[in-house]
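Extended Data, panel c. Modelled sequence:
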Amino acid sequence: MIESMIDPKDALKEFFGFDAFKGNQEKVIKSILKGEDCFVIMPTGAGKSLCYQLPALMMKGTAIIISPLIALMKNQVDAIRGFSEKDSVAHFLNSSLSKTEINIVKEDIIAGKTKLLYVAPETLKKEESIEFFRQIKISFVAVDEAHCISEWGHDFRPEYRRIKQMVKEIDDVPMMALTATATPKVQSDIQKNLGMGDAVVYKTSFNRQNLYYDVRPKGRKELVSKSIISYIKNRTHKSGIIYCLSRKRVEEISEMLVLNGVKALPYHAGLDAKTRASNQDAFLMEDCDVIVATIAFGMGIDKPDVRFVIHYDVPKSLEGYYQETGRGGRDGLEGDCILFYNPSDIEKLEKFMKDKPVAEREIGTQLLAETSAFSESSQCRRKMLLHYFGEDYPKDNCEMCDNCRHPKPKTDVSHEVTQSLQVLSTIKGEFDLTHLVNIITGKKTDQVKDHGHDKFALFGCGKEKDKIFWKGIFRIGLLNNLVSKNIEKYGLLTITEAGLQAIKTPGTHEMAMDTVFDFVSDDEFENAIAESICDEELFRDLKDLRKSVSKEVGLPPYVIFQDPSLEDMATKYPITMDELEKIHGVGKNKALKFGQQFIDYIDQFVKTNNIERPDDITVKTSGEKSKKKIAIIQNIDKKMAITDIARSNGMPYQELMDELETMVTLGTKLDLHYCIDELIEDEYQLEIVDYFKKCEEDDLNQAVLDFDNDFSFEELQLMRLQFFSDMAN
């Protein structure tokens, strides 16, 4: 075993086979070898683990590594054993071990064979653990993922706040805290809680130059799915991680990718430990290309060639976002970081916090506000991220984010920046961004009036511009250190000395407008058909063709193809029957019955106008809906009452009717006469069918009125379903 008197560089070569340290690694190792407390802040991929692994191998005794996740411990132990002749060099103690396995671990430690022992804080706090650790020689204690200590951190764990107390009960040994993400506030919180105020701090730049940051609008579900499938299929056999906030979404996305030919596996806390470990190993061993996961996945996962990290849902904080994206490109090569952003996701996360304690809610709201600002801003994303972690980025264009690579036109906003500084200087104090924007835009809110700020000479000085513009102006002030944000006071702003000087001698500032993202509600996201930019000329032509066909066959135009189907045709330009069947609301039967004239016309239109047809991705979905569809059809064949069919399939009545309409629209033939005959006499049925044949618009409410309420909405809806089935299919 390596002894402590060996030079760290020699030890590095002997054990790990490396010739040189990276960044601050050597300084950190020498510091802990001297018995100093040290605080290590290094971005993911900078080599944090080596900072405690090497000194543990060089020092007498066993180093205790406090780690938050079982999966992380296993990964780290496997990695260190890979460099050693004996597995006893590293162990972990956690709830996954049997009593027999725990005894083996303890025997190896007592025998002096184990140099690194990974434990969870929950294990550390047990009295039996403390008693055992008092019997052994501990070289030092390392607290990995130390941001878990801080309530301002992105992965707060209450057990972490008791670590110092637990370690004190064991022995007075050197301590090392390590994290890949720490704002100045989180850094202060960690040091205070661990009693490491005098610790030597080693901080490496947070700039990951090889990562490309891209924020995209999260439109409707089908659009996002197509975008992800298309992106991944253009990167065959490349590894990637997709992060989602909920287990349900993880399962949905994973299943959707598999159905569309992508080797993907899910990872979340709802899976049993064996499945989680198996899926993680499959990803590490390249038996699977994509892991779809909640944020539980990835902490300490040492896979260097993750080429992309996609956030399907908005992260809860910029620290979480930074750490999760940091799992991409750890080998220094390309790494794409794509975030799909929808303002309604922020609103949803805020609602989730409504039942939490006030302080926790205010912290969470502030962290979400930072994430929202990052997503919506037109500023360099790298500059914004680094500023959040207390680091200045000197360049005006990083060339590795969407805002820098595809810049929007900028305008001179020097006067407006000065105005914002004047307002901050005049009100003398710390106020949040919303309050300041309300003063400038002249909004007399209760808070503005309570402080008397509506009486200021500068009140309403910028009312000709909207709040989005002024939020961007204040971000310029923050990025140029003219304005300061007090994180401890929930993001309140105040003017700096540099800001006061800038009022006297104004500088030059340019700004592009921030992005305004569409607010897509849950219903729109889940259920609506994705809107595309359709060819308006072709759409008009197809409507004329539909009218012509409807006259030929003696049916209303909407029975042939409904407007959404024509819009989809005018977007995707189908020229074969197979392509037409994939158009929304068409299906095989309807394509065969009415489609030939439409694909002939579209084919000619494409050739005449030299149109390059899109290589469209058709998203295949789970068979669950197909199973339900079969069950419904079988129930109808058994002549069950509609209400009973709805109940047996766990559906509200109207949801069943909507499902039946979708089925009929896509070409399924149904026989609902047994229901209709019980409700409506034959002669009236003929009258209603005649009405549907003649009416131009597909409007049931109007039909109810036209029949003077002689028939209910539900009765006419059943009749229309049968009419569609008989005439269109």
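The chain has five domains: 8-203, 211-395, 410-511, 532-608, 624-728. This feature is highlighted in the accompanying rendering.
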